[in-house]
Amino acid sequence: MEKQKVLIIDDDENICRILKDYFEYEGYEVAVAHSGNEGLEKIKQEKPHVIILDIMLPEVDGWDICQRLRPADDIPIIMLSAKDKDTDRITGLELGADDYVTKPFSPKEVVARVKALLRRTRQEKEESMIEFPDLKLNKEERSVQVNSREVGLTPKEFELFWLLASSPRQVFQRDMLLEMIWGYSFLGDSRTLDTHIKSLRNKLGKPARDYIKTVWGVGYKFEVSKDA
Predict the structure, then answer these.
(1) Residues 6 or more apart in contact with residue 156 via CB below 8 angstroms
(2) Which CATH number is associated with domain 5-127?
């Protein structure tokens, strides 16, 4: 399994050394930068899983680095600061930091916060993926693969398929699906739903098309069965 990489950006070499020792002891790979410009370069080179970022840095400060990374990059960021004012903490979070630690701090606490942050990030990513042996849905990319074959769906087809697949075996009434995907103006127009289901099945092909089950007189559900 690939080691998770931590990038520490802080001009205090002693802090970097201590944190590096603690993280390496916990099995992380660690990269270090001592200035803002070096930090920005290391972010491109190292592609870290998490960044520990000091606010007061030479050349480019932590506020600016955080602002440059967001919203295009979602690397988790923990900001370090000697300032413990609420306004500084709020500023950091508003700029896109995920957590904020004031100096002096316990290295064990920083490691614990990184673990919690990476665990939460991993859970969020898992929630954006639905996988079965022959089917993959990616909510962030809005992509669907059946047996490694990319399936092109319209936005509404994807929303409909994601909703069904994210709640296996749950029966969705027609009106409920129309309301959740199209809005109130489409209530009662079941032909819209049926047309999209038919198109979905045609595009998905075997075996995924058979995962969309018709519940006669009620609506539809998603179910992966052995005889599908």
Answers:
(1) 181, 182, 196
(2) 3.40.50.2300
